[in-house]
Amino acid sequence: MKIALLFLFVAVAFAEIPFDEIEEEEGSGHVSCRHEFRECAKDAEGDRQKFYVCLAKYFGCKHDERMEKIKHCIHRCYQERQTCRSFRFICDMRLRHCKYNCYNMRRSEE
Fold this sequence. Notes:
mainly alpha; rod-shaped
């Protein structure tokens, strides 16, 4: 089971078109989570503990990116709520739906 999970993590890390590199412009100075992971894994050179530390850093980086995107999405929801001209109940329902969608974004929507 552990080996299957490790294989899954590595497969995700080395996906051909990672989302975090599609969005960034060339030369922007941003180092993608995947690039950081590859460099860290290369430095680990067979040391399992160092590799696990690299893997933990990678998932932490991806989590931080996702939380930042959720934060911006929710901010947009509240801005839309401020400009809403419908009944208050309708505006609040739209806000709730928008926030729900922020937390349940798929990779293609992020």
